[in-house]
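Page 42, continued from yesterday. The earlier attempt failed because a stray header line got pasted into the input along with the sequence. Redoing it now with the clean sequence only.
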Amino acid sequence: MNLSKLVNTLPLLIIGAIGWYGYQPKTKPVSLLEQNNKMSVEVPDGSPGVDPSANLPEYEVVANSVHDGDTLRVRSRAGAVLKIRFACIDAPELKQELGQESRDTLRSLINDANNRVKIQIVDTDRYGRSVAELWTKKGLLQSQMTSSGMAFAYDQYKKNCPSWNSVKSSEQTAIQYKLGVWASPNFIKPWDWRKGNK
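This time it went through. Structure tokens are written below.
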């Protein structure tokens, strides 16, 4: 091919390359499950995401305050201590099968976050605890607990759960892979266990 033909064809090649590049499908968000680590991972599609916790206050989790898989205490920067009951989920009770494992999973998630969480309070329960959604840098703690099979998405708490779809979707991952509470088809839900163990 001589030089003049190459020069004449070059614009067509450039236009073709731009068109081909623009036609390539963008990567969609997918959830992957690392069964060994029992955690879900989001693969971004390159578009800017909205961080629901971006403007929420950050708290320090009080040392040794993770009582079970859905209850802990936090301290504000001003020093105020709040008792927190997780919105959206219900975790096995300590005396129940997997109760201690659920608590230890939450402790591990908190430890990985350097004992820092962001909190959105949605209600107050009958015991005076703040009912809240909690985030770490890895995302919503409620979703992390349900995706590992260490807590249930609790339909009774759905109305006070702004992130219900995320929590329920994460639970489906644990169900699919039979993780934690989903490994046993006869696992007693914590709300039913409490009725029989008052």
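Notes: The chain is about 30% helix and 25% strand.
Reminder to self: strip header lines before submitting.
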